[in-house]
Design a protein that fits this description.
CATH topology of one domain: Rossmann fold
Oligomer: single chain
CATH class of one domain: Alpha Beta
Largest sheet: 6 strands, mixed
CATH architecture of one domain: 3-Layer(aba) Sandwich
Number of helices: 7
Length: 261
């Protein structure tokens, strides 16, 4: 199972000048098992903080996060995370990076390598399993990070703008790759992005967040059939949903800029 529920979540912290910052306020959402859910929102609205709380990397000031009904307290291997900066070990080869977490779980070397090889192949890096991260492009490094998360067999994969640093062509390829993997694996995915097109292409459900303090201001069901192709982005239904999200975000961006002034 991999059902994530967030109830009345608050996050407050003290800024460098000693003032109180309310990052999240009364935020609630529910991501059912096997769903691909996407969060969009203006910069600084707390998207990454929300993912960190679900990952167990931050404690909320109020409210609760649950995985399959169990409160989340601290990190756990049932939640995998993919960051924008890859977080690979530069001294390990591709296949050893992917197998690293498996060895920590107590799996034998042979079992770890077999499982790692399966996911290295799944992300299209079979010819590079003995390469080191410095020998890979940005898109290839992110494939390794995705393979590593999948190999650990988490119930939920949390992805914090994983394609944000990639060029547009590589980003498009990675989106298609990730969607293809999800269509086969059907892991619960919670994916953060600034890109509305990316959100609608990937997601089954899109949550739109307000400016700080972050809360959910719109929830959109994306009912396009699978498999999806990039021709989808030119269809009227896609454009209607895009305009809906843009309308929701337009006022929030203005609010964020006004608050920062």
């Amino acid at each position: 199972m991999g059902t994530v529920t967030v109830e009345s979540l608050d996050l407050r912290f003290t800024s460098r000048n000693g003032g109180q910052v309310i990052a999240l306020n009364n935020l609630s959402l529910s991501v059912p098992d096997k769903q691909f859910a996407v969060i969009v929102g203006p910069s600084g609205c707390g998207k990454s903080s929300l993912l960190d709380i679900i990952a167990g990397l931050k404690e909320p000031s109020g409210g609760v996060c649950r995985l399959d009904g169990r409160p989340i307290h601290g990190p756990g291997r049932e939640r995998g995370m993919v960051f924008q900066n890859y977080s690979l070990f530069p001294w390990l080869t591709v296949i050893k990076n992917v197998a690293f977490g498996l060895s920590l779980q107590g799996k034998s070397g042979r079992e770890s390598l077999e499982r790692a090889r399966h996911y290295v192949n799944a992300v299209g890096l079979a010819k590079f399993e003995n390469a080191y991260p410095t020998q890979l492009s940005g898109g290839m490094k992110q494939r390794v990070a995705i393979a590593r998360s999948l190999a650990n067999d988490p119930e939920v994969i949390l992805m914090d703008e994983p394609f944000g640093a990639l060029d547009s062509q590589t980003r498009a390829v990675m989106q298609q790759l990730l969607l293809g993997i999800w269509e086969k694996e059907h892991k619960t995915i919670l994916f953060v992005t600034h890109d509305i097109d990316e959100a609608l292409f990937l997601g089954e459900k899109v949550y739109v967040m307000s400016a700080r303090p972050g809360r959910i201001i719109d929830t959109i069901s994306v009912d396009f059939a699978h498999p999806r192709s990039y021709e989808l982005s030119t269809e009227p239904a896609f454009m209607d949903l895009k305009r809906r999200i843009q309308h929701s975000l337009h006022g929030e961006v203005h609010k964020a800029l006004s608050d920062a002034a």
